[in-house]
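Example 5.3 — Polyphosphate kinase 2 family protein
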Amino acid sequence: MIKLLKDDRFIVNSGKKFKLKNFDPGFSIDYVEKEDANEIMQKHIQRIAVLQEKLFASDNHAILMIFQARDAAGKDSTIKHVMSGINPSGCQVVSFKAPTANELDHDFLWRTSVHLPERGRIGIFNRSYYEEVVVTKVHPEIILNQRLPDINSAKDINKDFWKDRYESIRSHEKHLVKNGYVVLKFFLNVSKKEQKKRFMERIIDPEKHWKFSYADLKERGFWDDYQKAFEEMVEETASEKAPWFIIPSDKKWFAQLAVARILLETLESLNLKYPAISDEEKALLGKAKKELEAEED
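Solution (predicted structure tokens):
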């Protein structure tokens, strides 16, 4: 059986001295080949579907899956494949783009908070509040457009500013965990070489033109800045209760399998059960059975 959740090659629950250079984007488990992955994936998906129903019925936990990554790292395809067997009524996916005017009139955690899944459901954030310590760190001019009090120039966006943002995130996730949320944070780690390959595929293949944005190529020019921002993101917010999973993503099939396995193991760890019914409810079941059996066809 593939075990990933407990594997320290992937999980980061303390960000101390975290460096992305220590995580190989091209890694895959040597005893699983791409040809075998689909069969294993289907078994995982079937088991996830069973456990999702129990999660929905028990109604005392919610799963929050957060995906952060560079452009073309495979967030959409990973979400699509891992959640392909899920009952849509028990799952929700929210993709966060640039904040709207209404969202900018609230604190930076508000726009994601209003989309948190209810207990019994699995919520997926394709990007999240972490954009506010990644993109904004690479492009601090965005902060100046947010009309924040006492932020009047670039010099006001200092170490204390970022310290406060990280503290807000840590407190937010601690609050979620205390209220029944299981927070799974995935960083899909793609190499610069593989990103180039995927961009070229989008440019060359007419059916993938819609996926390419020249703005993504411009952001590629800030690769080292993003590298540092992602490292600081993990360093400041990884914890035992809300760990980061650094998923090797140069091989999409492996990234998808890893995320599916982590979700499966998480659901299994909750020891989910269907709700027990009272003696009175059991008596009503018996009564209902007799009444239905007594009906004439």
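Remark. The two ends are 50 Å apart (CA to CA).
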